[in-house]
Amino acid sequence: MLKKTLIAAACLAVAATIATPALARDQIRVVGSSTVFPFATLVAQSFGRTSGLKTPVVESTGTGGGIRLFCAGIGDAHPDVVNASRKITAAELTTCKTNGVTEIVEMKIGFDGIVVASARAAAPLAITIPQLWLALAREVPNAQGVLVPNPNRMWSDIDRALPNKRIEVMGPPPTSGTRDAFVELVMTPGCSAHPAIVALRTADAAKATAACAGAMREDGGWVDAGENDILIVRKLEANPDAFGVFGFSFLEENADKVQGAAVAGVKPTFDDIASGKYPVSRPLFVYVKKQHNGTIAPGLDKFVTEWTEEKTWGTDGYLADKGFIPLPTAERTTSRTDARAMKLVAIP
Amino acid sequence: MTDTSAATRARVAATLKRRYRTERIFRGLGLAAVVLSLLALATLLTDVVGKGYSAFRQTYITLEITLDPAALDPTGQRDPAELLRSDTQTPLRDALRNRFPDVTSTADRRALYQLLSPSAPFILAQAVADDPSLLGRTFRFAALANDEVDTLIKGSISRDVPEDQRRITDKQIAWIDQMVEAGDITTPFNWAFFTGGDSRDPESAGILGAAVGSALTLAVALVLSFPLAVAAAIYLEEFAPDNRWTYLIEVNINNLAAVPSIIFGLLGLAVFLNFFGLPRSAPLVGGLVLALMTLPVIIIAARGAINAVPPSIREAAMGIGASPIQVVFHHVAPLALPGIMTGTIIGMARALGETAPLLMIGMVAFIVDVPRGVTDAATVLPVQIFLWADSSERAFVERTAAATLVLLGFLLLMNATAVYLRRRFEVRY
Questions:
Q1: ipTM of this predicted complex?
Q2: Which of A336, B277, B369, B423 is most open to solvent, judged by the fewest CB atoms within 10 Å of its CB?
Q3: Which chain A residues are Cβ-neighbours of B164 within 8 angstroms?
Q4: In this predicted model, what pLDDT tens digit does every residue of A99-120 receive, in sequence order?
C-alpha cells in the first residue's frame, strides 16, 4: 500500500514537472559579487518590506559568474540585476549584445576599501604600496635589478623600520573580485613604481608587464585563505604575527579583534576611504536589465529607486551602517539621476 | 604420544602470555578508538551548543507606546494592508524619547534610536494590522532590540574593550543599564527564530524558510528516487539476465555513487534549467538533482538487502505455486524493506547536508519569503548555515551554531523515523 502510494505520487510529480510550463516570475532576481552581496541583500530586504512586492532573491555567484548569467539572455530564466565589484568589460558587453541583452543600466553605487589587517594584539603596522609588493610578489628584482624568486623572509628584510617578523599574509584566492582589486590597486602599481622595473620597462616592456601581472609568492608568504573573510578574521585572532587582506566591512564589524594597517600613511577609516585618501579602494557597481522592467521583473524601476534613495546609499543610510562606503555627494546625485532615468550603457 | 602432547602444551604455554597480551592491546586500541571518536563528537557538540544556545533567547526593549490613529490610519478604514505599510517608526522613536527625556542632541538621539532593531517598526505594524483596536491606545510593547544590544546583554561583547573598538558606545551601554535596572529589558524565548525567514538583521533572522526548503527538496528527492531505486534494485537482483550488459550497468551504478556531488549540480544546471527551462532556486530542481545523487546509493543498499533474503524463502514461495512477481512482492520485498529503508535514510541524510550541487542551480541565495511550494525560490539548511557563517555581523555567530543544532535535530528526526519504520516492518524468520 505504502509503495503504491509512493509510486503514484512519483508519477504525479513527474507528470506535473512535464505538464507545468515555466511559471511567470513574481519577484526580482539578483546575482553577482560576493562583496556586494551583504549590501544587496539589505536593499532587497528593505525593498520587500516597503514596496508591497515580494523580496528579491539575491544569489552570491561572484562578479564574473553573475555577469555570465546576466548576459545569457532575455526571459524568465535570466536574472534582472547583477552586482559587480568591478566595471563590466567590453567583451562581456559584446556577449550580452549577442544574446539580445542590449538595454543595460549601470549604477555606480559606492566603494569598498580593501584592508591589510592584523590582530589587535600586534603592534600597528604602517606600510607603503611598494613595500607590500616587495613582500608578496613571486619575483622581485635583486640589487642588480635582475628578477629573482622573492628573497624577503622577514618584513624587516624590506625595510628596517618594519617589524622583525616573518611575512605571512592571508588573502582571497584568484577567483575572488577582492583579489583582482588587490592586484590592480596594490601589486601592479607597487611593481611599476620600483626603479628596477622602470629600467626594465625601457629595455623589455613585455617582461616588465609580466612581472607586474600580480603573481603572488607561493612559498608560504602569501596564503590563499578562501572566500570566507570572517575565517581570516578568526585566524588573525589566533596568530598575532600574521596579516590578512579583506573587505572593509569585516574590519568595521570586528574592530575589537582586528586593526587595519595604514597604507601609504592613511589608516582605513570610513571617512578616508570615502574621500579617496585611502589608496586601496575600488568602486562597486550594479547593472540592471532595462528590458525586464515591468514585463518580466515586476517593480524593477522601484528597486532602482530603493537603491538610489538617500536613506539607502547616503552617508547616513542603512548601508553605511554595515561598512558600505558611499559615493561623494555630487557623484551620488548624477548617478541617481542617470539610474532613475534608466540611462543605458553604450555597447560597443 | 605423551611426549608430543607435552611438547605441544609447553609450546602453547610459552606463547600464551604473548597471545593474551596481543588480545589486551587489540581491545585497548579498539576502546581508545571509540573513546577518541566520542571525544571528538562531544567537543563538536559542546562547541556548537555552547555557541548556539544563546540564540534561543532574544532581547526585547519594553516601551510605553501611544499609537495615533490620525497618523497611522488617516483614511480610518482599518484596512490591514494599509496598516502594514503605515509609519510605525515614529511612535517607537517617540516612545524612546519619552523614556529618556534628557537626550536632546541629534547625534545622541540617533544613537538612542539605534538601540532598536530596524525590524521593530515592521513587527509593530504587523501587530497593529492584526489588532486594529490598538490604535489610539497607550500600551506596553516589547520592541525587538538591535543585534548590538542583544550581544551585549548576552555577554558576547566585552565592556572592557575601548569604546572605539566596539560597535556600541558607552552612552548606549548606560541607557541599556538604566533599562535593565528598571526591568524593561527582557529576553524571552526566541520564537521568531523558528517562525521567520532569513533576514539581514541577525535579530530577526529565522530558520523556517530554510527548514521548509529542506523539507520540500527532500520530499521531491525521496518521491522520485525511492521508487525508481527500488524498482531498479529488484530488477537487477531478481529478473535481469546475467550478461555483459547487466554487469556494465552494475559497474556504472557503483561508480555513480562515488561521483562528487557538484557534478550532479552541473548536470542539473544543463538539463533541468537550460534544457527543460525549470525555475532557478526552486526546491523542485534541487530535489531532482539530489534524487539523481541519492539514486545509486539507494540502489546499492536495496540490492544488498534483497540479496540478503535467504533463497529458501523464494524457493518455498515458488514451491507452493507463486509467480515470480508474487515471490518478489509478497515475500522478498517485505523482508528486504528494513534494509532498503536504512539505505534510503542514509542517502537522504547525505542529501540533507549537500550544498555543492545546489550552488549551480541557484539555491545558495538570500531568500526572505518562506517557500509555499516546490516552484518557489528556496534555500536549504546547510546553505543557510554557510550564508550566516559568512556574514560579518557578530550576532550571526550564535545563529550559525543554532542553525547547526536545528540541522542536527532534523537529522536525528530522520534517523528516528528510520529506526521506527525498521522496527515496524522487520520480519523475523
A1: 0.81
A2: B423
A3: 255
A4: 999 999 999 999 888 999 999 8
